[in-house]
Design brief:
This protein is α+β, with helices and mostly antiparallel strands and about 500 residues long. It is about 70% helix and about 5% strand. It has helices at about 15-30, 80-100, 105-140, 145-165, 175-180, 185-190, 195-200, 205-225, 230-250, 260-275, 280-300, 310-335, 345-360, 365-380, 385-405, 410-435, 445-475, 475-495; strands at about 5-10, 30-35, 40-45, 55-60, 65-70, 185, 255.
Length: about 500
């Protein structure tokens, strides 16, 4: 964070007098003196609407005096040069106090500094004791975050591989997510039970990923050291699976869900449960309870917007709270040297039992599964959308092409004109488009469908040829059998297409 300092010579001043003058200079600048040491004073500028305030440190060795100003509220830049102005203001005040030295005021300042040193010492001792109590409860200094980092790494690697596979960084492709293991109702409920877990490591876009990983790290800093790696990973995976089940239950008409947020809400729910006990020291418990409560409340409200699977959030939160209550009980017993070896297996078995029971009671038919798998398989081809657009337009062209043949008000010359001006050109246009699909990157099934459509179009053109012969020759008896045969083949081709 931005910091600036300057050193001046003290000349004939000793340390105590230099600190006494510095104390008065800080006061005269309208600042606050916070702490005092043998050779230091720590002050702070006041907070304003335009500034968070800066930290002012005064240090002396009896020969020189160093004043520093530092921004300590997360600022990246010293916009406006506040640190430099603070130093200049202090040095001006210091010289003014020194030039009008009042021995009575200085002696009073020396006594005040001595009292402040005692308070500072007690405060430091209390903070050390609080830190020791916090560390004893949460093991923050005795553990690493390997599991948290590992989960984050897996999510990032999976996201990168999916992006290469076409999942999309911002505009996501849900079909790619299904192939990679999202919680897609039809497939999850028809045999792909593993999707209850794999979807926890899949994300819809880079913003979704970054937000979830930030939230995981924020809670993992506290929970992984406190719980230990085994309890931590079991809680994460089990709440993730239970959140997936709740998502399926809530979206009874079907869902394609993914993301670590269900498991992350589970960890926040677990942490919330622990914070309601005396396992965590009181001096940090209230602040953490407030921040965790704000996080949960905000994200549940945000989850009400369209496109967010709030049911997974709620499922993760509730399951996390339940596991947190169990963990709190187990940790208390462990502190009393009573290990409860059944707790973790029980949580795992309960999760597996819930998953098995739900999947058995809500099975999707294999016919629906085959339909979805066929659609997913077809969707991986680049030109599918182009081919589907062609099929959509085919119906309108067909209606236009056969309309003259269905118009009973037309006489033969009029029908001939309509055939040559409307019907023939329409079918020829479709024929050319279908011939072009032979170069499309579409599924074998779609190529086969294009071939059947082309055969159908050729039969329609053959029908027009026969009708024109009848009109030109006026000899229906000779060409009616041929016309009937063509129309019979048309019906067979239509049945195949349907």
């Amino acid at each position: 964070m931005p910091k600036q300092q300057q050193t001046i010579e003290l000349n004939d001043l000793d340390k105590e007098m230099a600190l006494a003058i510095s104390y008065q200079a800080i006061k005269n600048s309208g600042w606050e003196v916070l702490f005092a040491g043998e050779e230091k004073l720590l002050g702070s500028t006041p907070k304003k609407w335009s500034s968070f305030g800066q930290e002012i440190m005064i240090e002396t060795d009896g020969i020189t005096l160093t004043v520093s100003s530092e921004m300590v509220n997360g600022e990246s830049f010293d916009i406006g040069g506040k640190n430099k102005k603070n130093i200049e203001s202090f040095l001006t005040a210091f010289k003014t106090v020194q030039s009008t030295l009042d021995q009575e005021i200085m002696q009073r300042n020396i006594e005040t500094i001595k009292e402040l040193r005692v308070v500072t010492q007690k405060t430091a001792e209390q903070e050390a004791a609080d830190a020791a109590a916090l560390d004893a409860a949460m093991n923050l200094s005795g553990s690493n975050l390997y599991v948290t980092y590992g989960i984050i790494a897996i999510n990032i690697i999976v996201f990168a591989l999916m992006a290469i596979n076409g999942a999309g960084l911002f505009d996501v492709n849900g079909l790619v997510h299904i192939r990679w293991g999202s919680n897609f109702s039809v497939l999850t409920l028809s045999g792909d039970w593993w999707r209850l877990l794999t979807n926890v490591f899949i994300h819809f876009g880079i913003i979704h990923l970054l937000m979830n990983m930030y939230c995981l790290y924020t809670v993992g800093v506290y929970l992984e050291p406190m719980l230990g790696k085994v309890k931590y990973i079991i809680a994460y995976l089990c709440t993730g699976v239970l959140a997936s089940i709740v998502s399926l239950w809530w979206h009874s008409k079907g869902v394609n869900s993914a993301g670590a947020s269900g498991a992350i809400f589970g960890m926040y729910g677990l942490f919330l449960a622990l914070l309601t006990t005396n396992l965590i020291p009181k001096q940090v418990r209230n602040a953490l309870l407030q921040s965790i409560g704000i996080f949960i409340g905000y994200n549940l409200l945000y989850g009400m917007k369209s496109g967010v699977d709030n049911s997974a959030h709620v499922g993760g939160l509730i399951s996390g709270l339940a596991i947190g209550v169990i963990y709190a009980y187990a940790i208390k017993k462990e502190k009393a040297e009573q290990n409860l070896n059944w707790v973790l297996p029980a949580i795992i078995l309960f999760t597996l039992g819930m998953a098995y029971e739900y999947l058995q009671l809500h099975k999707t038919s294999q016919e629906d599964r085959k339909t979805e798998l066929a659609y997913i398989a077809d969707a991986k081809y680049d030109d599918n959308e182009k081919f589907n657009d062609l099929l959509i337009g085919f119906s309108a062209i067909e209606d236009s092409a056969i309309a003259p043949l269905q118009d009973t008000t037309l006489n033969d010359p009029e029908l001939k004109i309509k055939i040559n001006s409307i019907s023939y050109p329409s079918w020829k246009r479709v024929e050319a488009a279908l011939e072009e699909t032979k170069g499309y990157n579409i599924s074998p099934a779609m190529h086969a469908k294009a071939d059947r459509l082309l055969a159908y179009v050729m039969l329609r053109e053959k029908e027009l040829d026969v009708l024109l012969k009848i009109i030109d020759t006026g000899n229906q008896q000779e060409f009616i059998p041929e016309l009937n045969e063509v129309r019979m083949k048309q019906k067979e081709a239509t049945a195949e297409l349907q």
